[in-house]
Amino acid sequence: MITDRAELLSLCGERFRATYLIASAPEEALERARDICIEQTVEFPADLIERADIRDQVIGRVESLEEIGPERCEAVIEFAVEVAGGELTQLLNVLFGNISIKPGIRLERLDLPESMGETFRGPRFGRRGLRALLDAPKRPLLSTALKPMGLSGRELAELAADFACGGIDIIKDDHGLSDQSFCRFDDRVSRCSEAVLRAAEQTGKPCLYFPNITAPADELVDRARAAKRAGAGGLVLSPGLTGFDSMRRLADDDDIALPILSHPAFLGSFTAAPGQGISHGALYGQIGRLSGADASIFPSFGGRFSFTSEECRDIVDSTLRPMGRLAPNFPAPAGGMTLERVPELLEFYGEDVILLIGGDLHRHGSNLIEGCGRFVERTNPPPTTS
Amino acid sequence: MITDRAELLSLCGERFRATYLIASAPEEALERARDICIEQTVEFPADLIERADIRDQVIGRVESLEEIGPERCEAVIEFAVEVAGGELTQLLNVLFGNISIKPGIRLERLDLPESMGETFRGPRFGRRGLRALLDAPKRPLLSTALKPMGLSGRELAELAADFACGGIDIIKDDHGLSDQSFCRFDDRVSRCSEAVLRAAEQTGKPCLYFPNITAPADELVDRARAAKRAGAGGLVLSPGLTGFDSMRRLADDDDIALPILSHPAFLGSFTAAPGQGISHGALYGQIGRLSGADASIFPSFGGRFSFTSEECRDIVDSTLRPMGRLAPNFPAPAGGMTLERVPELLEFYGEDVILLIGGDLHRHGSNLIEGCGRFVERTNPPPTTS
User: Quick count: other Cβ atoms within 10 Å of Cβ A179?
Assistant: First the structure.
C-alpha cells in the first residue's frame, strides 16, 4: 500500500495527447480508455494508490471519448510530458508500450505541445532542406535503389553512375545491403559515393547517394561517419530493425548532419490488422518525423504491397501535420512502382514527393540512362510537349 | 539488365531456414513463397537477373510447402547464411523485413545452422547461469516489479528492501521507469542496488536487482555500465523500443556481463493478428534468445492480456528449442498474475519459470514482507505442510 510519505512530484503540468481507436461500444470503451491511462503509466491497481499526486499527475487522463461507429470509439488521452522523461524510447512506451499487447486498440494520432517539439528536433533537413541540397525548389524528386543484392561494390557503383547521369536525384542502397562478404560496406560506399560525386560534377546537376547504414547497434554510428567521410549525400535506415531512437540519434548528430531516408522494413505488423497497432499516418508520418526522418519510404497503393490510397493519404497528411516546430518531411511512396504509373502517382501525391522506382527502371532497354531519362520526362514534362 | 560481368559470389553454402504460415491455398501459396524468396533478398524482378550465381545463391529457396488447413500452408524457405552478413539486424530483415508489410504471412519458426549459433552467442547466462547466480538449482524463481511510477528512488529502494527480505529472487524496475525528473536513473539505481545488496547480506539469500535501462540509443550502454558499477544484478530492456540488436550488444559485452530480462513493450503488434506477424514462440522465444535475453517476460494466459495457453506453450517450447549452441532461457509469464493463481501457473509452466507478480503482492495487507512470504510458500510449499 503506497502512502503519502514521500516528497511531492513536481511535474511541469504540460501534457501531450494521444488519440486511440478503441473497438468497443462507448461504455466499455470508456473503461478501456481509463485502463490505458493506468497501463501506460503506473501499471498498478488504481485502488491501491493513495497518493493524490500520483493519481492526478502520473496516471493519464481521458480527455474525451467519441463514438464514431458501431463498436468504435475514439478516445483522447492526455499524459504528463514528464512521464515520457524527454526520451523517445519512453515516449513510445507511454504511447503504445504495453497496450500494443491488448487487442482492439489502435494509436491514431499524437499531439505534442510546443515544448516537446524542442526536446525532439525531428528532421534536420525536412522538405525544404532536402530541396535545397538538390537545388530543386519545386518539383517531385526522383529516387531509385542500387540492387540486386549479390552485385559487388564496383558493379553497384557503375549502376549508380548511370542513375546519376540519367537525372535521378537520390540514389539509395537497397535496404538489404549491409556488410555482406560479397559486398562490403566500406568498399561499396566509397565506390558509390565517388561515382555519384563524379557524375554530378559532369552533369552539373546535384545528385545524392544514400548508403544503407542499418547495422548492429555498436556499428551504426561508425557506419554513418564512414559514409559521411566517403562523401555520401544521405543515409538509409530501417528503424523497425534498429529502433526509432537510433534514427533520432543520427539525425541529432551535428557532425554527421546528413539527410535520413527511413525504410519500412520490419514495421509492417504495426499496420497489419485494422483497428490494432498504429495508424499509417502516426507510424510512417508522425513517429518517423519525431525520429528525424527527412523522408519516409512506404509502400504505395497499387504496387506489390497492400496499402490503400486512404492509408497513403493519411501518411502524406502526417508528414505535414503541425507538430511543435518539427519540419514537414517527404513522403516517399515505393514498392513496385512503374514508369507507366508516374502520372497517376503525381496526380495523387502532388509535387511534394519523392518517387522511388527500383526494378522497373531496368525494364526499359539495356541503357539505364535512357530509362532514367524517361522517368525524368514523366515527372517534369517540358512545357512545349504536344 | 544485369549481366555476368562481375566476380562470382563466394557464399559459404550454409543455409538457415525460416518457416512461414501463408494464408492461401497450395498453388497460390507456392507462388507467394517464391515471392518471399525474392522480396527478402534481391527485391528485383527475377526475370531481369541473368546471373546464375545470384539466382542460385542469393535468392531464397522454397524447400517445402505443406497444406495444413483450408487456405493455410506452411512453407519452409532456405536463405544463404551470408545474405544475413553475420548481423542480427540484417538477419531479422531477411526473415521478416519487407514481408512484414504483406498480408497473410506469418513467421512461424527459425532453424539456424551450428555456425550461426557461433555468430550469435545468445543468452550469456540462460537458465543454468541465472540459477547459479541465485543459488537456486531447482525451483521456480520469483520476481516482482518496483512501482508505481511516481515514487522516488528512495521510496522504491524501501520497497526493494522489503521484497528482498521477503524472499523474492529478482526485483525489477517497472519498465516505465526511465530517467524522469521525479525519479532519476542514477539515484534510483544506486539506492535500489544498495538496498537489495544489504538485504541479501542480512537474509543470506541471494537476490538480484534489475534496473530498467531502456534508454536513448546514445545512453543505453552508459546506463548498463552505471548499473553494473552501482551493484545491480541484471538489466531490464524492452527490445521493441530499442531494437533487438541493442539487447544482443549488451549481452555480448564482457565488461557488463549481467543477465538480461527482456520486456515485451511495443512488441504486441507482431502477434496481434492471427496468421500475420511473428509467432509467439519465434518472437518471445527464439528471437529473444538469439538477442541474448536470459529471460523473456510475456503476458501469461489468464491475466489482463490476451495470450492463450497454447500461445504461452509455444513461447515456453521456444525457450528450449535447439538453436545452434544457444542456451535455453527462462520464460517469465507476467501481466496481472495473482498469488491465488500460483498453483495453476506452476502446473502449467513447471519449475523452470520465473513467476513475475507485481501489483497483487501489494494486496495482501500492509506488510509487504508477509505478502512475499506467501508468494514463496505457494511456489515452494514445505514438505511437512499438512
Answer: 21
| Dist. CA A295–CA A328, nearest whole Å | 9
- Structural element, H or E, at residue A35: helix A26-39
Q: In the 8-state DSSP scheme, what is residue A17?
A: E
Question: Is the distance from CB of B126 to CB of B294 less than 8 angstroms?
Answer: yes
A54·B150 Cβ contact <8 A: yes
Residues of A in contact with B83 (CB under 8 A): 149, 176, 180
Q: Say yes or no: A238 contacts chain B, CB-CB below 8 A.
A: yes
- Kindly tell me if the per-residue pLDDT of A329 is higher than 90: yes
Residue B85 to residue A179, Cβ atoms within 8 A: yes
Across the interface, whether the CB atoms of A148 and B2 are under 8 A apart is answered yes
Beta-carbon pairs below 8 A across chains A and B: 316
Query: In the structure grid, which three cell numbers stand for residue A198, read together?
Result: 563524379
DSSP sequence for B271-337: GSSTTSEE-HIIIIIIIHHHTT-SEEEEEPTTSSS---HHHHHHHHHHHHS--TTPPP-EEEEESS-
Partners of A101 on chain B (C-beta within 8 Å) are: 264, 267-268, 271-272, 299, 305-307, 335
Query: For A3-46, how does the pLDDT look when each residue is reduced to its tens digit (9 = 90+)?
Result: 443 444 555 579 999 999 999 999 999 999 999 999 999 999 98
Residue type present at position B303: G
Q: Is A101 on the interface with B (CB under 8 A)?
A: yes
Joined together, the cell numbers standing for residue A19 give 488519440
C-alpha cell at A352: 511534394
Taking only the tens place, the pLDDT of each residue in B43-69 is: 999 899 989 999 999 999 999 999 999
Q: Residue A139: helix, strand or coil by DSSP? A: coil
Q: Would you state the pLDDT for residue A7?
A: 45
Cα B130 to Cα B123, B189, B287, B331, B353, distances in angstroms: 10, 20, 19, 12, 11
Residues 282-311 of B with CB under 8 A from A: 299, 305-307
Task: Report if pTM > 0.90.
Answer: yes
Flag if A97 and B150 touch (Cβ within 8 Å).
no
* CB-CB contact of B92 with A266 (8 Å): yes
- B51 touches A at CB < 8 Å: yes
Tell me how crowded residue B255 is: count the other CB atoms within 10 A of its CB. Answer: 9
Cα A163 to Cα A156: distance, rounded to the nearest angstrom? 10
Which residues does A329 contact at the CB level (< 8 Å), separation at least 6?
A122, A123, A126, A127, A288, A289, A293, A294, A295, A296, A319
Three-class SS state of B372: helix
Chain B residue with the nearest C-alpha to that of A56 = B150
CB pair distance less than 8 Å for A266 and B41: no
State the smallest CA–CA distance between residue A195 and chain B in angstroms: 17
Asked if A100 and B196 touch (Cβ cutoff 8 Å), the reply is: no
Nearest to A330 by CA among A294, A278, A366: A294
* pLDDT above 60: residue A100: yes
Among B49, B92, B241, beta carbon nearest to A148 = B49
Distance from CA of B48 to the nearest CA of A (A): 8
Contacts of B174 in chain A (CB under 8 A): 43
Among A255, A327, A332, A242, which Cα is nearest to A290's? A327
Question: Among A77, A43, A46, A55, which Cα is nearest to A11's?
Answer: A55
For chain B, what is the mean pLDDT?
94
- The CA angle A54-A56-A61, to the nearest 5 degrees, is 120
> Over the stretch A141-167, which tens digit does the pLDDT of each residue have?
999 999 999 999 999 999 999 999 999
Neighbouring-strand partners of residue B333: B298
Cis preceding-peptide flag for B140 (omega within 30 of 0): no
A42 at interface of B, judged by CB pairs closer than 8 A: yes
Q: Cα–Cα distance between A155 and B319 in angstroms, integer?
A: 43
> Which three cell numbers mark B363?
494486496
Q: Is B356 helix (H, G, I), strand (E, B) or coil?
A: strand
Using CA coordinates, name the residue in chain B closest to A297. B98
Tell me the torsion sign for CA atoms A19, A21, A27, A28.
negative
